[in-house]
């Protein structure tokens, strides 16, 4: 293929790092690639994500892809709205990074070592709700900006700690600054956290096949499919207090033979903002159904049906 694939990305250090790994993998498979930086409204505004809405980081990239300015778009999967875009196809979900959230605190502190009243920065209602639920008396304060800005508020002494996705910190080569990786039983990550979504145009079969065969990881795809089906069925947006994490696990069938199954855990808030947790396992090929079933269970338990960014 003499064609050059134009890979679109946001211009942040994190987005460029993510896109770099995709570009390198495609090059190693013999493709010619070019990286095109697309400015998004999310990069130009300092307003809280909960105000500017879902899709601020992704819709400009998707439009550029649909109208032929680029041939491939690389997104942080968790930033994509759950509604499908019929112009595009998800060509690959590359092997997922560690999906967990991470604490960066002053003086190497862990969550349990932070005294009541300590200030912890996060702009995420999901992280805030789960931090509150620990009952540590933490003072949770709003926070926005890129990874560098957020960690900078700990370094400057403005905050005692911040909570961020481990994957984002690691992709920037700064995992050494993490003081604690938070266990999912305390802090379930955002659906699809740590995963990338690599999209191309629905009619660009050559690009789709190349990207799929080079980059797609079926276990990562199954896990994020279940997590996002749960999110979609709760009608929540990326800013709502909903967490989910699926893993491929070994199980034994009726004859004692090892089979691989998908294990999904979820958390969602009630209208009173109490947290509900539930777990289920299902067939690897039934990831969507598993996500929907767990959402139904959470709704039965009293989870709020969420309406998106203002939730
Ligand atoms: N909402 C912002 C965002 N979107 C993707 C990542 C990086 C982690 C990932 O790729 O899932 C981050 C930063 C964060 O949540 O700390």
Automatic annotation (TrEMBL):
Domain spans labelled Porphobilinogen deaminase C-terminal: 223-299
Cofactor names: dipyrromethane
Catalytic activity: 4 porphobilinogen + H2O = hydroxymethylbilane + 4 NH4(+)
Domain Porphobilinogen deaminase N-terminal residues, every copy: 5-207
Keywords: Porphyrin biosynthesis, Transferase
GO molecular function, one term: hydroxymethylbilane synthase activity
CC cofactor note: Binds 1 dipyrromethane group covalently.
InterPro entries: HemC (IPR000860), Porphobilin_deaminase_cofac_BS (IPR022419), Porphobilin_deaminase_N (IPR022417), Porphobilinogen_deaminase_C (IPR022418), Porphobilinogen_deaminase_C_sf (IPR036803)
Residues modified as S-(dipyrrolylmethanemethyl)cysteine: 238
Iron keyword on record: no
UniProt cross-references to Pfam families, sorted A to Z: Porphobil_deam (PF01379), Porphobil_deamC (PF03900)
Enzyme Commission number: 2.5.1.61
NCBIfam families xref list: hemC (TIGR00212)
Note: The porphobilinogen subunits are added to the dipyrromethane group.
Oligomeric and partner information: Monomer.
Family under the similarity heading: Belongs to the HMBS family.
Function recorded in the entry: Tetrapolymerization of the monopyrrole PBG into the hydroxymethylbilane pre-uroporphyrinogen in several discrete steps.
Protein name: Porphobilinogen deaminase
């Amino acid at each position: 293929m003499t064609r050059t694939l134009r890979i679109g990305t946001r211009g942040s250090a994190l987005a460029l790092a993510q896109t770099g790994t995709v570009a390198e993998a495609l090059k190693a498979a013999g493709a010619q690639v070019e990286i095109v930086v697309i400015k998004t409204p999310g990069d130009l505004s300092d307003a809280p994500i909960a105000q500017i809405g879902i899709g601020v980081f992704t819709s400009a990239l998707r439009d550029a892809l649909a109208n032929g300015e680029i041939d491939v778009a690389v997104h942080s999967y968790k930033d994509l709205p759950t509604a499908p875009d019929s112009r595009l196809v998800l060509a690959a979900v590359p092997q997922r990074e560690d999906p967990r959230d991470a604490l960066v605190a002053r003086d190497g502190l862990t969550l349990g070592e932070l005294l009541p009243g300590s200030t912890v920065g996060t702009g995420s209602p999901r992280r805030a709700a789960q931090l509150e639920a620990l009952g540590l008396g933490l003072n949770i304060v709003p926070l926005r900006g890129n990874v560098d800005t957020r960690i900078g508020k700990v370094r400057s002494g403005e905050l005692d700690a911040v909570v961020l996705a481990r994957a984002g910190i690691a992709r920037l080569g700064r995992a050494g600054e993490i003081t604690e990786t938070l266990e999912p039983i305390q802090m379930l990550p955002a659906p699809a956290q740590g995963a990338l979504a690599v999209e191309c145009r629905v009619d660009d079969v050559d690009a789709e096949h190349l990207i799929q065969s080079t980059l797609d990881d079926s276990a990562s795809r199954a896990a994020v499919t279940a997590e996002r089906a749960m999110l979609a069925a709760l009608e929540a947006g990326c800013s709502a207090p909903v967490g989910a994490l699926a893993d491929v696990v070994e199980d034994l069938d009726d004859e004692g033979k090892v089979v691989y199954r998908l294990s999904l855990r979820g958390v969602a808030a009630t209208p009173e903002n109490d947290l509900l947790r539930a777990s289920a396992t299902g067939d690897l090929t039934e990831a969507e159904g598993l996500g929907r079933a767990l959402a139904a269970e959470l709704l039965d338990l009293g989870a709020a049906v969420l309406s998106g960014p203002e939730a």
